[in-house]
Write a structure and sequence with these properties.
alpha+beta; about 210 residues; 10 helices; 5-stranded mixed β-barrel
């Protein structure tokens, strides 16, 4: 198995990227989150990877961190959930946001993922709930733990509120019919301490208010 690849970013598109490693070009499918985290063409990149093998196809998937890879593996371990659906989930929800939604049984948030209906969201919650603690650090079960939290893993109520506001604003744009890629771009650079209403106005202004 290829655990990770370190090389130079040759190109990135809306759902994949090309990485040059010692003169060899690798095509990796990736989530919007991973793609938006990458820099410009020619920059050094390290991506965690997963190779998906089927009878007539071999696909390589890239992840910006191990956290995203772990949730991807947990998702595709669920019957009926393939790599494309898993990437759709990860393009819509941060891994920690998904873990919190599973823990709190937030069907509405999970079903905001394009291609995920209410029944599928319920099944994902049932299937993932017993895996969250085993697959992720203990703090994954807490609502939106920030990576910069102190050594005890504590998170302030303000930090939780910020993530909640972003989730509310994301859900509103999904209801309007915007894609995950458009939403990710719309919120890039948004103020970290803004409320959901301000975030929504920010995103709509950035996108010109329409597609």
């Amino acid at each position: 198995m290829i655990a990770f690849l370190a090389g130079v970013l040759a190109h990135k598109a809306t759902d994949r990227l090309y990485l040059e490693v010692n003169g060899v070009g690798y095509e990796l499918a990736a989530s919007t989150r991973t793609l938006s985290s990458l820099g410009l063409r020619g920059e050094d990149v390290l991506l965690y990877t997963y190779m998906h093998v089927r009878e007539n196809e071999v696909s390589l998937f890239g992840f910006i961190d191990e956290e995203e890879k772990r949730i991807f593996l947990a998702l595709i371990d669920i019957s009926g959930v393939g790599p494309k659906v898993a990437l759709s989930v990860l393009s819509t929800l941060h891994p920690r946001m998904l873990a919190s939604a599973v823990t709190t049984e937030d069907i509405a948030l999970i079903s905001s993922v394009p291609g995920i209906g209410k029944k599928t969201a319920q099944r994902l919650i049932i299937e993932l709930k017993g895996k969250i603690d085993a697959v992720f650090p203990a703090q994954m079960g807490e609502p939106f733990i920030d990576a910069g939290a102190d050594a005890t893993g504590a998170s302030t109520a303000a930090e939780a509120g910020e993530h909640s506001a972003l989730a509310d604003a994301q859900a509103a744009l999904f209801a309007m019919g915007f894609s995950a890629a458009e939403i990710a771009e719309a919120f890039s650079g948004a103020p970290a301490d803004a409320g959901s209403e301000h975030l929504l106005k920010y995103a709509l202004t950035k996108m010109g208010g329409s597609r």
